[in-house]
């Protein structure tokens, strides 16, 4: 059995994900309205409407309240001298191990919502894969980025 | 060998043919358009456009050829080219992932080869292609590459060697590398691989789909009983013609694949594996052994029934050249029992004959049921729309259970000091052999159901020509997962709870 990685991502991620959930639910709502209009216009079976309503409630609850909380609680990372360890996932819990010497480059990204809350995403690329830490405080993100790019440069094995 | 060299002039023709092939549709379209109206200077202009294009292509092709030079200097292949913008590309030998040559019909007429040099550069980026050089020239570049690489190795090992002297070759006789023939495909094997190749199977699938179209037509009969005879005859006739077309297509696919794989040989030199094959177009790929990222054994569903498998070498090329989108095919069709023995001659570091530890018994049920996740909804939809025959789709459940059971028997893993083997199957089986220092990232996953049974999925990625290749095993015992995780970890994670 293993310990969980030490660090958590920013608590503000919760807010950001909730906003994202709302946007997503909003889009679902719009599409449902379009669908309902079409149902009345073309006389399609009416039973689709309650199904849409139920789906809307489930989706709203899931993506605004349920998923962000659990996601946030699960998300952990740890940058050690020789490797990076990530853990995340809602239903499927994934643990990832990336040795420092495999890291090719580290990117920092900020979308509009993340920027508003002073957060940033870090993505770590190896020659074969890319892994992201979704929401860190800007300062912390910058810090992590620097630490990784320093440590990654230390020694080199062949590709 | 510092002087700049040009390609053989045939390269102009080869490039021209290629460009004409690409431009043929626009040219035909312009002709069709211009044929419509026949008045005014504009039409005349339109009429001449194709000629202008062709003339331009010929001239630009010639200038391009004139501008394209290559040379080997300071352990680098240096290419300069460009029509308007002069481009230089320097490729250090130690960055080369593979050198492959092929001989198209045009090249064969003049005793030339086309040489493609692949580096680990980002996917999609073309690195270097010498589209027509003489065979001697190609052999010379290959051996220069060998020597330069050997020199780099030497330098790395004992650093300060007198630099000028060791590389003042050029006049030095080319050392013929000792080649050892490791594997050769027999005619029977070539025939079999062609019979079961994807192309041929695709045609069979198309045939089935095609014939099922006629079944759909049958209800028509009820509407026109008068027509019945005629339609019935029509169906028979069309079926026969259809069958014939399919048969011919299948035959063509087989012949094409036989031409492609004939003379398939694998040779090994001190540092490279050389794979060559083809009858009309001869292809030859040189893979530096120290660039190999992993070994993959694929067990194609039908071929594995006969005890055969294919072996691939996972190579970190950029994958921009045709044919190398996938990993490099080492043995297209080989008896499973002989793989370990032959691989010992090629890549002795890899232990192919290690025992594969099975996944625990308690995973069996999960394996049998898992295919249902993917097929239940399609089957439900199928039954709904294809009644009454759709009910036959229910038979897919037991069939997929059996496939699941076979997958369960196949799955497994093995770790030794520095080698990880992961084995996975859905319909086709895949066994991946990877070294610890080649694995880019390791991932363990578990969903709620797996956690309840103390199982998890392990996946490890290595670099390949398309970016990444993965080895995977589903439903491994949790303790084994931890062991592999610790094996890969460089800082020994602490003992504790896992989720």
From TrEMBL, chain A:
Transmembrane regions listed in the UniProt entry: 21-41, 47-67
Keyword presence, RNA-binding: no
Lineage: Bacteria, Bacillati, Bacillota, Bacilli, Bacillales
Entry protein name: PH domain-containing protein
UniProt-listed InterPro entries: YdbS-like_PH (IPR005182)
Keywords annotated in UniProt: Membrane, Transmembrane, Transmembrane helix
Domain YdbS-like PH span(s) in chain numbering: 72-148
UniProtKB/TrEMBL annotation, chain B:
UniProt xrefs under InterPro entries: UCP026631, YdbS-like_PH
Record field: transmembrane: 44-63, 190-210, 230-253, 367-385, 391-408
Keywords attached to this entry: Membrane, Transmembrane, Transmembrane helix
Origin superkingdom: Bacteria
Domain YdbS-like PH: 65-142, 261-345, 408-488
Coiled coil feature spans: none
Name listed for the protein in its UniProt record: PH domain-containing protein
Higher taxonomy: Bacteria, Bacillati, Bacillota, Bacilli, Bacillales
